[in-house]
């Protein structure tokens, strides 16, 4: 029965992979189409404001139609830009990319379990919890459950169950591959990840978040100012109002291009997920070391190899990092090397 249930979970995971992939492509199209449309509207309105000012001021020519059209287009661009900045399509796309990758990773883990292990009900429950945790971490709907795009500060993404069940491997020897030296090595690796990798990505993520907040506020503000300038042109036919409208419109287009063309929201989401990856590694290593019975842990040699691969290092490089961390703490000198070579 456990095997049948795991195959049913695999079918659900395959469906989720397809859904996240399709919706990711759709939201990538949103980013491109909205960016191009808003920039086209903004630049057209700015051009119309400039033409109206050059034609109408001091020439006695009525350009009310151009002024009204410019004001309406700036107002429309403001509303569309507020919506686009609220949902951050590039960030949504990055969420779907990560969800697709993590569901495929879980899919591979279950297939491996079915191929080489003898699954039990605990494995089924663990797989179900992981699927539901991923659903919660990367929601598909936008209304009601969309992730906050502008939190107070960066919080690492969490896509795993709160209580992780340790991997069970049959003991290969009395110590199941664990030694005191290996335990110390893993503790030092956790310290390096915490003091270097996690701290660095949270710092960079907060910088990207603050930049995105400024850009998301500046774009609609500039188009709003341009709309007001166009409105004043209708009533007063003032060259200053036309200048304000044209300049603010051009600046708004530049800000919008930098924010969404440069995909600042995607960069923030990337940092958030990388911070989550390092948090998961810390929790995984700690939970394994906290298990007093070594026979209930994952085999030590296999676990060390997995940690090294996840950090993009060889086994000898991983041990060198642990030694350097231990030496730097004893000497009181700063650690100048990161644990990961992948990110």
From TrEMBL:
InterPro entries: Chloroplast_duf (IPR027949)
Keyword terms of this UniProt record: Membrane, Transmembrane, Transmembrane helix
Pfam families (UniProt xref): Chloroplast_duf
Signal peptide positions (record): none
Keyword Transmembrane helix: yes
Transmembrane segments: 33-54, 66-84, 214-234, 240-258
Record protein name field: F-box protein At4g22030
């Amino acid at each position: 029965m456990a095997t049948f249930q795991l195959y049913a979970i695999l079918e659900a995971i395959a469906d989720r992979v397809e859904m996240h992939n399709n919706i990711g492509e759709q939201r990538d199209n949103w980013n491109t189409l909205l960016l191009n449309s808003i920039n086209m509207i903004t630049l057209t309105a700015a051009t119309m404001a400039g033409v109206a000012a050059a034609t109408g001021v001091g020439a006695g020519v009525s350009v009310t139609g151009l002024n009204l059209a410019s004001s309406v287009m700036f107002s429309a661009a403001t509303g569309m830009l507020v919506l686009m900045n609220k949902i951050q399509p590039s960030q949504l796309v990055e969420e779907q990319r990560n969800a697709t990758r993590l569901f495929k990773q879980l899919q591979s883990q279950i297939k491996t379990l079915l191929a080489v292990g003898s699954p039990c009900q605990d494995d089924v429950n663990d797989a179900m919890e992981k699927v539901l945790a991923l659903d919660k971490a990367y929601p598909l709907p936008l209304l009601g459950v969309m992730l906050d795009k502008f939190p107070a500060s960066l919080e690492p993404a969490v896509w795993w169950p709160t209580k992780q069940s340790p991997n069970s491997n049959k003991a290969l020897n009395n110590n199941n591959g664990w030694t005191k030296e290996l335990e110390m090595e893993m503790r030092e690796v956790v310290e390096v990840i915490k003091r270097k990798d996690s701290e660095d990505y949270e710092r960079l993520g907060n910088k990207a978040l603050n930049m995105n907040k400024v850009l998301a506020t500046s774009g609609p503000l500039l188009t709003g100012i341009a709309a007001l300038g166009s409105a004043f042109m209708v009533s007063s036919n003032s060259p200053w109002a036309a200048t304000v409208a044209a300049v603010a419109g051009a600046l708004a287009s530049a800000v919008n291009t930098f924010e969404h063309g440069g995909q600042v929201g995607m960069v923030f989401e990337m940092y958030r997920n990388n911070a989550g990856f390092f948090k998961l590694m810390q929790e995984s290593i700690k939970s394994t070391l906290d298990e007093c019975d070594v026979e209930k842990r994952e085999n030590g040699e296999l676990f060390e190899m997995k940690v090294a691969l996840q950090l993009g290092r060889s086994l000898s490089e991983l041990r060198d990092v642990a030694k350097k961390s231990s030496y730097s703490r004893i000497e009181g000198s700063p650690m100048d090397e990161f644990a990961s070579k992948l990110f």
